[in-house]
Each structure stands twice: as structure tokens, then as C-alpha cells.
Design brief:
Blueprint: E1 17-20, E2 35-36, E3 53-60, E4 66-76, E5 81-87, E6 91-92, E7 96-100, E8 103-107, E9 114-121, E10 133-141, E11 144-165, E12 168-181, E13 189-200, E14 205-216, E15 223-236
Antiparallel strand pairs: 1-10, 2-11, 3-4, 3-15, 4-5, 5-6, 5-7, 7-8, 8-9, 9-10, 10-11, 11-12, 12-13, 13-14, 14-15
């Protein structure tokens, strides 16, 4: 994603205020081998610990080409959780930082890493619910910490299923994120991100994640589509 203005409102936003939302993200994108399953008897997220690690293959879904391999390792758990991220192609990346487990403060997942004014959920707080929740917040780019722009996340849990990845077979909660925000590029309007995420509580992270971006530039006509990427789990510990 070239800019921050990517896919996956008018109001004064309250930091990280959770609001119910009648219409949230669109229909989920199912992997070909996914099989619906019941909610696990004990759907609890693996506690964070030093040394936990996840390795992902990054693929361009427009042409199917593998772009990169990213390794994420827990290097600190107090006072905040730091997940060190390393790219095979680009070397050291910006860390992911969580205030508490599952509560994002700094998100290095995007091409332009950012920090939130208030922590945002990395996965649904209630793993048994299918209720869509909306969070209103602001973000700042790490490269421009004096900036402050609107960020709205709608998180929609869909269903439980089993899915197979290179790292193995997993029981996952599939949920969708839809993000509306003010871009760092003043030419971009109606900036949006859409994501489908397959989160495995036993792993403490996603097994599969697909993100797509779109924005509109007045005078150019039509939506401007940006990268459509997939992160697939290769290994974990």
C-alpha cells in the first residue's frame, strides 16, 4: 500500500469509544478449504510470553506473486508488549506495540506505521459474539508524530471455522475490519481499508489476513485501488 490511504466521518470523534453499528463490513472472503465449525468449548487466547514468534508469507493477491516473508517476535511484555518485526526483503521493520494483550497502540502492519491515540482491539473482545462494534479514534504517523487524523474501525465477527495454512490446521474466528479515515495525502478523500482476518486463539495471532485499500481523488474519476495483500502463517512457536 503506497500511501496510508488504503482500503483492507463527519463528526467530532471520541477516543476509542465503542459504538454499536447496524451495517458494518461486507461479506467475508472464504479460503477454498475452510470448513465452518462450532465455537470451541474453551475459546481463550494464548497468553503472551517472551520469545513467541510468528512467520508470515506475504503475497500480492493481484498477481499471486510472493512479495516477502515477515518474522514477528515478542521481545518485551512489560510495561508494554513489543513485537519485533523483520522483513526478509527490507530488514528491520517498526515494532508492533500493545498496551495489554490484544490492545494495539502502535501498528506496523501498514506500509506507513502509525500510533493510535487510544488502544484499539487486535481481535474481537468477545470471541463468542457476532455483534459488530465500531471504534472511533485518531492516529498519528510514526514519521509525522505531530499529525493527528481521524480513524474509525468497524469490527465484525463472522463465524468459527477450520482452516489449513503452511503452519498446520487451525480453528479460527473469522472477522472483518472496515476502516474509514482521513488520509495523510490531502488529495485523497473517502479513504477506506477492508480486511478479512482468520484469528487462531491457540496461536495468539492470525493464521490468514487479507487487506485491500481504496480511495478517491477528485478529478481523476473512479476509485484508486492500492495493494491487495495476504499474510499467511508459515510457522509459529
Amino acid at each position: 500500500m503506497r500511501r496510508l490511504a488504503v482500503n483492507p466521518l463527519v463528526a467530532v470523534l471520541v477516543p476509542a469509544l465503542a459504538l454499536s453499528l447496524a451495517a458494518c463490513a461486507g461479506a467475508p472472503r472464504w479460503p477454498a478449504d475452510a470448513h465452518a465449525t462450532a465455537i470451541p468449548a474453551q475459546a481463550t487466547v494464548r497468553p503472551v510470553a517472551l520469545g513467541q514468534q510468528w512467520v508470515y508469507q506475504v503475497r500480492n493477491l493481484y498477481n499471486g506473486e510472493i512479495e516477502d516473508e515477515v518474522t514477528e517476535t515478542v521481545v518485551a511484555v512489560t510495561p508494554q508488549i513489543h513485537i519485533q518485526r523483520t522483513s526478509r526483503r527490507r530488514g528491520a521493520l517498526d515494532d508492533e506495540i500493545q498496551d495489554t494483550w490484544g490492545s494495539l497502540v502502535q501498528d506496523g502492519h501498514w506500509d506507513l506505521p502509525l500510533r493510535y491515540d487510544q488502544p484499539l482491539p487486535a481481535w474481537p473482545a468477545d470471541l463468542a459474539s457476532t455483534r459488530c462494534t465500531r471504534y472511533a479514534d485518531h492516529y498519528r504517523l510514526l514519521a509525522d508524530p505531530d499529525s493527528r487524523r481521524r480513524w474509525e474501525l468497524s469490527m465484525t465477527p463472522r463465524h468459527w471455522e477450520t482452516i489449513t495454512a503452511p503452519a498446520g490446521a487451525f480453528t479460527v474466528l473469522q472477522f472483518d475490519n472496515r476502516i474509514h479515515f482521513v488520509s495523510n495525502d490531502p488529495q485523497d478523500v473517502e479513504s477506506e481499508r477492508d480486511e478479512s482476518v482468520w484469528f487462531a486463539p491457540a496461536v495468539g495471532r492470525w493464521v490468514l489476513r487479507r487487506s485491500h485499500g481504496v480511495h478517491y481523488v477528485p478529478g481523476r474519476g473512479g476509485d484508486m485501488h492500492e495493494a491487495y495483500r495476504q499474510w499467511e502463517l508459515l510457522s509459529w512457536r
